[in-house]
# Entry
Amino acid sequence: MDWFMSPADELLSKYLGLSINVWLTLVFGFLIVPAVLGVSFGIHKYYMRTLLCIFEWATLQMKLKAKEKNHQLYRHYTSGIVSKMPDSTLRQEIQDLRRTADCLSLEPRFDLADVFFFCRKGLESILDDDVTKCFSAQELESWNLLTRSNLNFRYTSLKLLALWVLGVVIRYCVLLPFRVTVAVTGIFLFIVLSTVVGFLPSTKLRRYLSDTVHLMGYRLCVRSLSGVITYHNRENKPKNDGICVANHTTPIDGIILANDRCYSLVGQLHGGLLGMIQRAMVKSSPHIWFERAEVKDRHLVAKRLRDHVADENKHPVLIFPEGTCVNNTSVMMFKKGSFEIGCTIYPAAIKYDSRFGDAFWNSSQSGLVGYLLRLMSSWAIVCSVWYLPPMNRKGCRTETIQSERRF
Amino acid sequence: MGSSSSRLSNVPNSQELMQETGFSAAHLLRLYERFQFLDKDNKGHLRSEDFEAVRELSKNPIGDRIVEAFFLPGQETVDFPSFVRVLAHFRPKEKNRSREGAQQEPEPANSRNQKLKFAFRLYDRDGDGKISRVELLQVLREMLGMQVTEEQLESIAERAIQEADLDKDDAISFDEFRKSLEKVNIDHKMSIRFLK
# Structure
């Protein structure tokens, strides 16, 4: 029986060896080298166009079927319940009330009936408010073959079901392992190279190398998620002497911004894999990581930030005023602190296109690992970054005005 | 998030609620959807955290009093019937409703009296039936904010009590409250226009 087994064995091992070779060449050639050099083949554009065609076809099928059966395709969630009376907004009324209280010459006016207005406004906002609409994941106009984004999916036709099954197979059996491999390779390379660069003496060469290594790491991470990022207004890109602030939707916001240029991140030192990555990063480039004890000391934070910003050779600091997803203790600290430092502020706005994959993380529904798996098994993460014009302290802008200056 | 098919049969006690509050079926359904939306963890009832998640409400000076008004004394959760009953106070009065004697049918939830009672509860937080000077000062502080001095607040409260307090017990009872608001068009101020 031996002679029967060995040719098959040989064949199997040959086949395995070949496929691993092909795999590594593909990964190396198509991902790592371009990531290091910063070029792109443009494969993603074709990929997205094909996907869009398929989605449109799928939506058309669903609409036809729905018409046949006379069902309503989507529950219109965003229709209002109440019609808000346009007499005056809450803010105006509060101002009116307080202004009369301010006038020193006249007696401040107050009526027992004044409470009615606020009462009614309060109930109207319980019933129907614009803000909570932003916090619910959007329902799409066209279906993108991900059941997680279509809450009303019903079995409508065999063709669609087959297409959906095919989509699941492709996403979980082809795309997901591929992306996980890329991510693992990327992180491993990043840690090794960053530590190596850290051993060099502090010169211009070292800074250049560390920038390259960091950028390579971020680009690999983005490619592992199949991220397609479009940058607008690149002339407003942050420079080395300030703080970059951005809105925060997902844990990967930092990576998306850092794909374009290097930033210094701020946060708490963790343990485990994340801590290892953080320590490797700080060896080659100055990031601001805090120990647990230092986190509560607001003055220490402000001092470190100020020192960092004053040094021209260091990268701009990246801050999310809404608070990070990873570290909730940062929220209170930076709300006042980041804008009191008094340097140039570079705002950035990140907007995700949810047609290819929903990047929103509902932390009450899934943990971080579940979230990352979900991201990696979507079609792609598509987003746009707008760099807004920089702002200086001179304008006496308070924090609330900054945060209201939204897109 | 979201029910698979929103139909009136999914709403608990829909017929009784419609009778009691006067909401139409369509309105009740909309309110139920909104209730489910606010109830983010699908618990079937609301807690005060769910109300606090509404950002516009936190900007409202009396936001937390309004939230308190939904909870029955001693309760920590609001189920859908209680939710609807509170909102029923704010239904505009129908114009062509004939006036009938008070004994013949129970007072509808959106009558003038009920609206006044609701507003009274917002002032009278401890529910003893009187708005004391302390309670009035608290509301004034919330509504007028930090820009008014203590003395100004006290003088406003003093004047308000003097004008309304008829039996001179240094507190405003519900009847005195009602009397002082005789001329105010309560129905207009305390009604929410529900879309058809």
